[in-house]
Amino acid sequence: MKILTPKQTRELDQFTIDHEPIASIDLMERAAQKCMDWIISNIDASSYYIFCGTGNNGGDGLAITRMLDPFPYNKKAFLIHFSDKLSKDAKLNYKHLKKTDAACLSQIDFLEDIDFNQIEPDAIIIDAIFGSGLNRPVEGLAKLVIEKINELPNKVISIDIPSGLMAEYDESYAGSPAIIKADITLTFQTPKLSFLLPENSQFVGHWHVLDIGLLAEYIEEQKETHVLVEKDYITSIYKHRLQHSHKGNYGHALLIAGCYGKMGAAILASKGCLKAGVGLLTVHVPHWGYNIIQSSVPEAMASIDRSEMIFTEFPELNGFNAIAIGPGLNKKKNSVVAFENMLSKIEHHSLVVDADGLNILSENKHLLNKLPQQTILTPHPKEFERLAGSWKNDMHRLKILKDFCQQYQVITVLKGAYTVTCMPDGRCYFNTTGNPGMATAGSGDVLTGIILALLAQNYPPDKAATLAVYLHGKAGDKALLQESKESLIASDIIRNLGNAFKSLN
Ligand SMILES: NC(=O)C1=CN([C@@H]2O[C@H](COP(=O)(O)OP(=O)(O)OC[C@H]3O[C@@H](n4cnc5c(N)ncnc54)[C@H](OP(=O)(O)O)[C@@H]3O)[C@@H](O)[C@H]2O)[C@@H](O)CC1
Ligand SMILES: Nc1ncnc2c1ncn2[C@@H]1O[C@H](COP(=O)(O)OP(=O)(O)O)[C@@H](O)[C@H]1O
Ligand SMILES: [K+]
């Protein structure tokens, strides 16, 4: 699903109004009805307090209040009068609600006009103060109301976007002084970019996209800049195995991993790779790790370093079509030299760099220029900061990520919730699978193994990265059916890779 900018969202609304065609007031009615349908199906409450602004978001809130009328709920709508400029459609809905139930509607000029004590703790608050039209930090009356709502124990449902949050912002934006902390956000047609950034999860809560019938024609024409990766996209890139295939069809991968004390990383990445369908896997380990890898991963072949403890050399690269380097490596000088040598020998191979491979790059930045085009880097945020520098806010981090990928022509998988895979041309793919149980030692090593396996199977690097990230998260979600978020460990992700692949069929 494409994520649209605020400008594109406005254009999409207008395109739908012009081409469906539909009057804007009817579109608002449709949006409000979709919210109502969702609320009635999912929420069990007897009282609703609807806080409405003066723009079209407030118009949605006023329409929702009217639609609650046939139901046996207590309801009260507050028009937060922070501006005299009521939008045309908000005005129509204001009049309409006055006719339906004038008593439930109050205009609020001062915070004291609202008796917050009357709001029962189990009542639902609907936040329709600001939507996508917010264009500056919230001040004055609206700020006071938002702060007060955030102090209440009530469940809050935000319409379109939590009031005070912007769909997109730049690095100079230090956050609005007041933003609604929603439990649920019901957003229209496509999610907003800000929903996917860690710093905003405290405001957005669980978000749901409601299809209000805005025209797909317009969305299809837009460039794929920010994409939410869901099952339909993944099934479109997934290649089924052919009946008459043999292991030679699925590539020969080389994994360079492990050092004294960190052989576990090599084992986890190897297993992730094998369980993601590679034909053949060779693991290059220090001498000391030979017995460990052979007995823990009998399916893999071993290539043994002359060094007892660390990575100092690599096997002949001909014969491998994909290489991963980094899990459980180390950053000693001899390893850096071997890494640099290897980069100079790479020709047609696809490459993944993780963990200490990334730390070597951070400490030897000239090596970034030697990476083959479309190399996949898989940093967690700390590793990315070491690679590319620090950021002022998460939207700025996204900009740094795009600049970095464009400068070095690499693909970067920035890990976390909504892992973002950024392409050399700056396109960003946000993953939707995975859970906090995956924040556990070795989980990233498994991902490296999966990416390696898909590269060896000849997936183009951009598709290998997005598919691997999706499958890794899906395996984590499947693991959660038997485990808790605390008990889930990296081996559980490996064990559930089969279930993750099956979910694509
Ligand atoms: N278009 C459609 O077809 C559909 C739209 N829909 C709904 O419309 C919503 C977008 O509506 P919107 O554009 O009217 O913006 P909204 O956020 O309600 O109001 C902002 C207003 O407040 C003002 N303002 C801004 N910042 C401010 C601040 N800090 N402090 C004080 N004032 C501030 C600003 O005016 P300004 O003062 O800048 O002139 C603006 O007029 C969207 O989220 C969705 O819910 C749905 O019904 C589906 C169909
Ligand atoms: N809250 C979360 N939601 C979804 N995925 C997560 C979450 N926390 C961590 N993960 C995933 O778990 C993996 C952790 O990787 P990493 O930090 O490199 O771990 P390690 O270095 O221990 O192997 C990443 O793929 C990341 O996306
Ligand atoms: K809102």
Automatic annotation (TrEMBL):
GO MF annotation, one: NAD(P)HX epimerase activity
Catalytic activity from the UniProt record:
(6S)-NADHX + ADP = AMP + phosphate + NADH + H(+); (6R)-NADHX = (6S)-NADHX; (6S)-NADPHX + ADP = AMP + phosphate + NADPH + H(+); (6R)-NADPHX = (6S)-NADPHX
Q: Which Enzyme Commission numbers does its entry carry?
A: 4.2.1.136, 5.1.99.6
Q: Binding residues for K(+), per the UniProt record?
A: N57, D127, S163
Q: Could you provide one GO biological process annotation from this protein's UniProt record? A: nicotinamide nucleotide metabolic process
The cofactor(s) it depends on are:
Mg(2+); K(+)
Keyword Lyase found: yes
Q: Which UniProt keywords apply?
A: ATP-binding, Isomerase, Lyase, Metal-binding, Multifunctional enzyme, NAD, NADP, Nucleotide-binding, Potassium
Q: Where is the YjeF N-terminal domain?
A: 9-220
Q: Where is the YjeF C-terminal domain?
A: 230-504
Q: Which Pfam families match?
A: Carb_kinase, YjeF_N
Matching Gene3D superfamilies: 3.40.1190.20, YjeF N-terminal domain
InterPro entries, A to Z: Carbohydrate_kinase_pred_CS, CARKD, Nnr, Ribokinase-like, YjeF_N_dom, YjeF_N_dom_sf
List of residues binding AMP: K415, G416, A417, Y418, T419, G444
Q: Any coiled-coil ranges, and where?
A: none
Q: How is the cofactor bound?
A: Binds 1 potassium ion per subunit.
Question: What's the subunit arrangement here?
Answer: Homotetramer.
* Similarity comment text for this entry: Belongs to the NnrD/CARKD family.
* PANTHER family referenced in this protein's UniProt entry, alphabetically: ATP-DEPENDENT (S)-NAD(P)H-HYDRATE DEHYDRATASE, ATP-DEPENDENT (S)-NAD(P)H-HYDRATE DEHYDRATASE FAMILY MEMBER
Q: What is this protein called?
A: Bifunctional NAD(P)H-hydrate repair enzyme
Species of origin reads Saccharicrinis fermentans DSM 9555 = JCM 21142
